[in-house]
Each structure stands twice: as C-alpha cells, then as structure tokens.
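Researcher: Next entry in the queue.
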Amino acid sequence: MSHPDAPLIEVDLDDAPQHGYTSNKDAYLKRLKRIEGQVRGIARMVDEDKYCIDILTQVAAATKALHAVSLGLVEEHIGHCVVGAASEPDPEARAQQIDAKVKEATDAIGRLLR
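Model: Structure for this entry, 114 residues:
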C-alpha cells in the first residue's frame, strides 16, 4: 500500500506492452470460459459416477479446445512477436531478438507436444 503523502504516478496504458493476442483477447477469454465450464461439467460427471467412457469423451473435447487456444496463441506469438523482432533496425540486435522469439515459440510448442 502506498504512503498517503506519496505523489501519484500516472501510468499511460497506451505505453503498456501489447501482446500478439491483445486484439483477440475477448475471443480467447470467451473460449477459455467455455472450456472452464466444460471442466466443471467433467468434475460433476465424476462426482455423479457417470460412465467412464462418457467422461473420457468430455476430457478429449476439453483437451481439443485447449489445444486450439494454444495453437492460436502460438500463431499470434509468431505473427506479432517474431515479426516484431524482425523490425529491429540494428542488424545484430534484430538477429538476437528473432532467435530469442523463435526459441520461445519452439519451446512452447515442445511443451504442448509432451
């Protein structure tokens, strides 16, 4: 908590870093809320001792939905962050930034495939 006599600091949210998914944030949140509901439904199925194959079918559907969100985020990262790194005017810094952003994407894809 700030001290009552401390000066207020204005923050310009337009200067906040923009992520590749920012323009689609509402759509991602809507999809994630839907997935959240699916997962709650799966928990309810387990609680109600539903047939295991029916539960597995719902788990597969939720997993597929999460994969779709993940792939969208990877695409956004490549389209925004990697392409953004390519616009760096300094050639040495540009190469380093591109390598770092591609490595981030590769590592994320690797985590998705585990």
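Model: Helices lie at 25-47, 52-85, 91-113.
Researcher: Noted, moving on.
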